[in-house]
Amino acid sequence: MDVDSPDESPPVRDSTLVNIFECVLPGDVAVTIVEGREEVQAQWSISSFLKNIFSTKDTDSLRQHFADKLDEIKEVHERIWPGYVVPPMFLSKHDQADQEGRGESLGPTFLKTKTMPTSIAMSWIVWSVSKSKRRDIDRVKSQTFLRNLLVHVLEVAGTLQFSVVAVAKANARAKDIEISERNDCIDYRNLWDNKIKGRIVWVWEETKRRGESQITSNWDRPHWIDFIVFALDPKSGSAPQLLAPVAWSILAQTAAWMDTNMGRLALSFQSVQNSRHKNRQENHGLTVRKLLDELCFIWSPNILRGAYAVHRESSALHRAAQALSVAVGLVAEWISPKQLEDEVFKRWNFPKHNSTAITSKESAKPKKAAQPKQSKGRTRKPMSEGGRSVTTEFYNHATYEDMPPKHLNQLIVKKLDREELFLLLAFCFGFSPQDEPRRKKPEMLEAVKSEYERRGSPIAFTGWTVHEVKAFMLDHLKKVKKGGDCGVHARLLPRRPSPELPAPLPDGISVQDDDDKDSSGSSEKEGFSESEDDGLTDEGWKIQKKKGKYMLVHTETKESIELGHPDKGSTWEVYQDDDVDYLNQTDNDDWEAMSCLEYFQEVKASEKALDKKKAKPAPKTPMSERRAPRMKGMAEKTRAAPSEKKHTQQPAQSQEEASPPPEEEEEFGASSDESPQAPEEDENEEDMWMPFIAKDRAGKMFLIDPKPGKELKLPVDKCSDWEIVKNPEKKGYELVSKSNKDTPKDVEVIMAGRKAKKVEDEARFKLVQDVHAKVEKYKDEKVQKAALKNLEKVAEEHQRAREEDREKQRQKTEAHQKAAQERERKMIEDAVKLKEDKEAKAQEEAIRRMKEKEQEKIDAEKKKQLEEKLRREIQAKLEKEEAGKSDKASKIPDKAGDEEGDVHKTKETEKSKPEETDTVPEKGESKPKDKSKPKEEEPKKPAKSSGTDKKSDTQESFERCGGDVAGWINAQVKQERQLAHTKFWDRVRAREKREAKAKRKESKSVSTQEQPAGLQSKLPQINLD
């Protein structure tokens, strides 16, 4: 039987069946919610969940991982939820046969796929992050999944409250901490004590430096997710052993909140029973939103003249048609006509005129016209000739070129009123109704295109729809001065976060309908009325984005539901077909359009089922449990569950306490089962709230309970001596008779009956007011005493703090003094050491100079000895030469007769010459000429060189010295000294020759004589330098 067949009557629903709903969480985790089973947690798909903590994508491998590690996961579950058993799991189809020996299950109920409850899913997350023997890539992937999941939970909740106990703190008590999107960090003093701070801080900083766990916050105010990841990271050393219980407690409370608010966490939400869309109607037609988007992005030049002729006959919108033609022509420059035609043929059927065949490029053969499929559970309305429906004549045209302008008007501009049109043109191009477009089409298109690009392409920059542009421009035009530019530039607008999502509107601007212009405040309803279909119709639905959430809103009743984010690359849209609005996702083949009303009813029914047990769902759910909160499906190991104890023991006890006859119970009030549980109060205050009996003037007796302000008329026919007695065993009050004429009755029980009413009598009401005033006075005194006590405590703490501050200041001063003394001592030591080093250097310098002087003396002595040695050698050499010359002269024959006169003449000549000296002639003096020598021919002197040659010689000698003036002068002086030295020795040799010649002449007559003593004095001085 086809479940969607309208001809079959619906089967009778089995009472054992339950509704199940499926939602998707971050990470594409599929979660199934079972309605009507309060003991069942939300069921997480094992295969889709484990893909987020394992690298493998193979489903069989993931199932094997789950089976192999289930015992370890149960151990983790016992650590997180100590004292509770692991909740049972659903059976899958394939697990039902081999269930024996595999543990407890949820009876015969089973799902299509293998699932696990929320607490086991959270245990898997803890195991995947804290397991030491795991690959780094798998652990990082698990940490990323945990971060994304917790970030999503905080975004949905807005504020989370946890009860935590600081680690290593003496007499620590549970403290409530609050986490919100604005303040998502925790003071470290709420997590650990200063005693172990030294063991945690350096590990935190090292983990933060490595960057493996993506920790970015500081240790003194850690981000709540950073703290959980750090406390569970096995690479954190001893930190997991210390901080892991705190992280387990936070995750356990988070899991309890998630399981209770799974409907709010869902990214997408649908009923599994209504998830089939194969037999739904195939929707044809371009929606208004799609057409408006195509007006800005996807259009064809074939529509230009048709668009210009739309309002040709209407004088009221003549200018609008001209401006619209400008916008159409602009888009025609960018998008090819083929792209638009493909989009149109995808959504519309185009039979030929007066024919039932469909024209198609793939096949030219005529086919039978395809009839639109019937919508599920709804008959298709006939096509009308006017109003919002498109006329049947529109289907008689195959292309836009043959389409009459009036049909184009109905298709394009009917939903776009004049205000929206001009606001759109002002936003894109800065056009106003007073502007006149250019007459020539090419110039007009070029000008519009340039203006749109000059303004930064506002539509493409923001991604806003026409309704969002309208809302922005209505606020923008209020700020534009008279005669100013009404357009905007993209640089002044918010940028869209991604190609799939539009940019958010500025603060204070929201999209509103025309009916809501005069209304103040938001018209959306958070909850739902008892009657789901009151005022809801198939028309009037729209998509509205508010605070980053996509809402499906009914414009008339203002009923709304949250849609969640569309798939990547898609956007939500609502289009109309046959007076029915349909919800669809663009560019998403997996999503099939469905009626907005049906979708609204399904989601509303599912959310109502989730919140059935809640009288008023609170957006901020505090988690103030001291230990891990008990979740659905968990039972205590050692004793019965609290709910069982409450429902099994309390009624029995109440009936033992109060068992009067039925008549008396009916007369005085309710049965003992209606006895409420009294809250714990101060004993003195409780005595003040003691019920009392009052009598009026007529003698009637009333039992008055001053706390709730109720009274009960007592019967006086049987007993007139009623009194109130305190029962210490039952910790309550009883109505008894002094004469024991009636059975004692519990005041709390009888005052909870139907006959107890509010005190209306003025006299009795004044008595109740007096009791209230007395209690309030007592409370005030109690508060004052507590305040005084608190002040004394605060004063003691302040005194203790001041003493501690003084002690710290004294220790700090002593530390400063000690540090100053240490610095002074060090300075003295440095000065002494410096002085010693200076004296040692001076002593070393003196020793060095003394050694140099001694070395100079030794060198001078050696030099003197060398000079003496050279003198002796020269003297010996000269004596040897003289002796050789004397021997040679004795061998020459005597020629006294011829040479005697010459010798005599020579002696006279020598006597007449001036005496020669051994000094070197000074510069500029010439050597005296020897007249006895024959005149020799003087060599021809070279011609006197010109000044240029002299300058060139000097320049060459100067250049040979490298351009150094001092070096050149030293060279010249050295050269002159060498020349004078050479001339000196030439004169010495000439004189020696003359003296030798005279001695040879004298040797003929005189015997050989010793060398004269003055010879030694005439020896030249030798300069060894």
Helix-residue proportion: 40-55%
Largest sheet: 5 strands, antiparallel
Mean pLDDT: 69
Number of helices: 28
Rg (C-alpha, Å): 59 Å
How many strand segments?
22
Q: What is the terminal-to-terminal distance?
A: 135 Å
Structural class: alpha+beta
Strand order of the largest sheet: 6-3-2-1-9
Given as residue ranges, the uncertain stretches (5+ residues, pLDDT < 50) are: 1-16, 97-105, 273-319, 330-336, 343-415, 514-533, 613-626, 639-680, 913-951, 1013-1018
Shape category: elongated
Biased composition (Basic residues): 366-381
Region (Disordered): 356-388, 490-539, 607-691, 793-959, 975-1025
Biased composition (Acidic residues): 679-688
Biased composition (Low complexity): 649-658
Describe the protein's architecture and organization.
Residues 649-658 have a biased composition (Low complexity). Residues 623-647, 975-995 have a biased composition (Basic and acidic residues). The chain is of the alpha+beta class and 1025 residues long. Among the domains are: 22-269, no CATH class; 280-501, no CATH class; 512-614, no CATH class; 660-760, no CATH class. It contains 28 helices and 22 strands. The strands form 7 sheets. A 5-stranded antiparallel β-sheet has the order 6-3-2-1-9. The protein has a 4-stranded antiparallel β-sheet with strand order 16-17-18-22, with no helix packed on it. Helix 4 packs antiparallel against helix 8, helix 12 crosses helix 15 (418-429) and helix 15 packs across helix 18. The N terminus is likely disordered.
